[in-house]
Design brief:
- With 445 residues, the protein is an alpha/beta fold.
- Helices cover 51% and strands 15% of the residues.
- The strands form 3 sheets. A 6-stranded parallel β-sheet has the order 3-2-1-4-5-6, with helices on both faces. Strands 7, 8, 9 and 10 form a 4-stranded antiparallel β-sheet that branches.
- Helix 2 (39-53) crosses helix 15 (287-300).
- The protein is globular, with a radius of gyration of 21 Å.
Length: 445
């Protein structure tokens, strides 16, 4: 089976390959094709993978190419993990937004809109090529903003594109662990959009144990979300929000913390990864060891400004092991081998949430089999969550419209309608600022 990884020179690719090395079952991936526009990054990642595969019998063969059509032709699965504009683009997203006093995070607020406007045209081109060159392939989208990009690609690939994220999985795992349950056996009642969802129940052996957690302040305050959001707020909500909702519920504090930080997250990762890629050009460098050290630092500093603002302390060791590669492998196995499973995924709504239309991509538990991912029916969201979901989905639709039409006016509308952008004039200045620093936005007229 052939797996193509777009963005194959990306830093997280070794996580995916490491997961593939543990799969010895029939029908496993035997060929991995890495695609990236940067041949140097491809070479660096290929070195890490070669060291990972050392001593592993029948490890999947790895090839690398800068030719997109070559990479896609004949693929059974395509992992899309591209970063349009690179980490320099992310750093600029953050800088422009923070100068206007609004959030520049990669997937939330102004930064997420800017990233989406750059990424959607490229993702749509990839979707069209997949439809032409590998019409039977399944696309698993890692590219952020994951829900928005998955919806853009679904207009050309239908249900054969599925978005994944490790945030809901990590959240469910933490809750189950605190409650003394096995995360692999728990049913997580989770619903929303990517990076905008809530756990409303967690069933262990058929019993919803979330009320027990919410009623126990000590238990509730013992894990990351309890420390991040505070016990009182979680009890008021009656649910456990995805960590990214901290940017909404504590927006003023988050913006101030990011403005005062020595570096933005994007700038930190840009410099850190530049050092990694430079280091592994040394023929004597231990590429896998260097990658591991770099990754450990990356994970330990994830959302550090938010945790500092909330007094949440350092991340738990159990949360530093990653996870999205495990979701991707489980999804691929379920489809390729009909190994039926349940995963929280980004898929088309159909009739799952009545407040959104059937084509809207949402993040919910899905039953997965050889025919793809099928969203499970969920109870309606409470009004406060419905308001946020509908507002952000409306923004995503304006981003898609702007990317399709090239309309600068529509792009301004997308920024202005976002709950975390507080002025139409700010929205206009954001569009001006982003078009100045991003050549990829020159299509906006």
């Amino acid at each position: 089976m052939k797996l193509t990884i777009l963005g194959g020179g990306g830093f997280r690719v070794p996580l995916v390959y490491g997961a593939l090395l543990t799969d010895r079952a029939e029908g496993r991936v035997t060929e991995v094709v890495l695609h990236d526009l940067d041949a140097g990054r491809l070479s660096a990642v290929a070195r890490v993978l070669a060291e990972q595969a050392a001593g592993v019998p029948d490890a999947p063969a790895v090839t690398a190419t800068t030719d997109l059509d070559e990479a896609l032709t004949g693929a059974d699965f395509v992992f899309s993990a591209i970063r349009v504009g690179g980490l320099e683009g992310r750093a600029n997203d953050e800088r422009v937004a923070l100068a206007e006093g609004v959030l520049g995070q990669e997937t939330v607020g102004a930064g997420g809109i800017a990233y989406g406007l750059r990424t959607v045209p490229v993702a749509v081109d990839i979707a069209r090529r997949v439809a032409r060159l590998a019409p039977d392939a399944w696309v698993i989208n890692f590219t952020n903003p994951a829900g928005l990009v998955t919806e853009a690609m679904s207009r050309h690939l239908g249900d054969r594109v599925i978005g994944i994220c490790d945030s809901p999985v990590g959240l469910g795992r933490r809750i189950a662990r605190v409650l003394g349950g096995n995360p692999k056996e728990a049913w997580i009642d989770y619903v929303g959009l990517n990076h905008l969802g809530w756990v409303r129940g967690l069933h262990i052996e058929g019993r919803d144990e979330l009320p027990r957690l919410l009623a126990d302040p000590d238990l509730l305050g013992s894990f990351e979300e309890g420390k991040l959001f505070g016990v009182d707020w979680l009890q008021s909500l009656g649910a456990i929000p995805n960590e990214y909702l901290h940017y909404y519920y504590f927006n003023r504090e988050a913006v101030r913390a990011y403005q005062q930080a020595e570096k933005t997250r994007g700038a930190f990762l840009r410099d850190q990864q530049a050092h990694f890629y430079e280091a592994v050009t040394d023929p004597g460098a231990r590429a896998l060891e260097t990658w591991g050290r770099t990754r450990a630092e990356r994970e330990a500093t994830y959302m550090s400004e938010n945790r500092e603002t909330a007094g949440a302390g350092e991340r738990d060791a159990d949360d530093l092991s990653g996870g999205y590669e495990k979701v991707a492998l489980a999804l691929m196995r379920a489809i390729a081998r009909d190994e039926r499973t349940t995963l929280i995924l980004n898929v088309r709504n159909r009739s799952t949430l009545s407040v959104l239309d059937g084509e809207a991509v949402i993040e919910v538990p899905c039953l997965v089999d050889a025919n793809g991912a099928h969203p499970v029916a969920v109870a309606p969201l409470p009004d406060h969550a419905t308001g946020l979901v509908c507002a952000v989905k409306a923004v995503e639709r304006e981003v898609l419209a702007a990317a399709e039409s090239g309309s600068r006016t529509t792009a301004v509308k997308a920024f202005a309608l976002h709950p975390l952008v507080d002025s139409v004039n700010v929205a206009r200045r954001l569009v001006e600022g982003y078009t100045e620093v991003h050549p990829g936005l020159a299509y906006l007229k």
